[in-house]
């Protein structure tokens, strides 16, 4: 758990450092797109986190803990890793808002590494933890889905169960 937290913080710091050390002029459209990516990522993280908090635990807890129940409802019905995908969208948005070409290029590598990490580290953990159910889920639902429809579906689901 601690490794995951350090991993995501490390990626954010890497993007911010690239932003500081490569200072070309800003591009207005890229900044707007970056803000949209940041908003999308934050909303995606919120919906995913709230859904996991409500459905991902056999026993409700107030503190943060990894899920012990597999969640396939709401936002998880259209993508397997919405929280992590939201984190990657936030990182991309930060790089775009900076308007610096090197930062945007660098975040491409960060995204590639982030996607690799999710698919090669977190996916096997899901299979180990939830077994055949997760294997079936992997066949039915893509790992990521860049869609407003997913956000709307996740939000509607949260309204229904809250």
TrEMBL record:
Superkingdom, natural source: Bacteria
Subcellular location: Endomembrane system
Gene3D superfamilies noted in UniProt: 1.20.120.1630
Topology in membrane: Multi-pass membrane protein
Keyword Lipid metabolism appears in the UniProt entry: no
Keywords of this entry: Membrane, Transmembrane, Transmembrane helix
Main location: membrane
Residues spanning the membrane: 5-22, 28-48
GO cellular-component term (any): endomembrane system
Pfam families xref list: PEMT
Protein name: DUF1295 domain-containing protein
Protein's organism: Caminibacter pacificus
